[in-house]
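User: Predict the full complex structure for these chains.
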Amino acid sequence: MQTFSVGQLAQNAGVNIETVRFYEKRGLLPMPKRTKSGCRQYTNKDIARIHFIKRAKELGFSLMEIAELLSLKINSETTCGDVKKIALDKLLDVATKIRDLKRIKKVLEELVTVCNKDNSATNECPILEALEIGNE
Amino acid sequence: MQTFSVGQLAQNAGVNIETVRFYEKRGLLPMPKRTKSGCRQYTNKDIARIHFIKRAKELGFSLMEIAELLSLKINSETTCGDVKKIALDKLLDVATKIRDLKRIKKVLEELVTVCNKDNSATNECPILEALEIGNE
DNA sequence: ATACTGTCCGTACCATAGTACAGGGTTCCA
DNA sequence: TGGAACCCTGTACTATGGTACGGACAGTAT
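Assistant: Here is the predicted structure of the four-chain assembly.
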């Protein structure tokens, strides 16, 4: 089976070498086999694992949560329901973030629309005023 | 005019005392007047300013950007257009964040829907499988 | 042989947004 | 007059997700 050095793994997986070691320290990557001279030896599984980590990060999981997911995976005593629960929690988080950002977006849009005078002094800028007045 | 100690300001504005001093260090709050004994003396304006900061944070501005907005306000040479530009930039950011999160949400929803077996071992969990297969 | 590249490890550092704490001084009230 | 409660400063620490660097080996190329 093909093996990779840490540099090759990093290249293939699209991360930094330092990041690979960082992930290892954080328990996201298993301690790899070493060559006689002590260099890390990786396989395709490790590339897949880094892809998994990147994908999970895209999905809004923190490294700690990803470590959790990966440990669930290793420890097969846990059920699919456990994983589902984590995903559901995350779904809730994401939904909340979207809701909040939409509110933010709306205010910004209103502000930008109002702010049409390009050369008025800022002490009468509607953005600042709106933010100042708009606090509860 | 009524004045407030740093503790009272923190209380009224809903932040920590340390945060008030932290904001001062970062240039978000002006250096306040001091009593003879050296205690900071704040006014309603400072409360409003912290509300402004909190509001702007809610709107997705970083402390650095907020400092920028606040300095624009003080320095009246700058125009409303400058402020508008910052807000427009932020609007773009926010729109991107919403788009990404929606994508994430969709994937999570699909995953959770698929994951209906509550007692299957994790080595056949569709979420983990989907994440592993789902990398490009 | 020696220079170059890659890897090793540990440590320190980056930004962000604070929080905590040590070791003092001040103010207030009984 | 003494203690509680507040304030002062500066520094160090938290978490997150890495990045950078120094000094030492290893393997390869010319």
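The mean pLDDT of chain A is 81.
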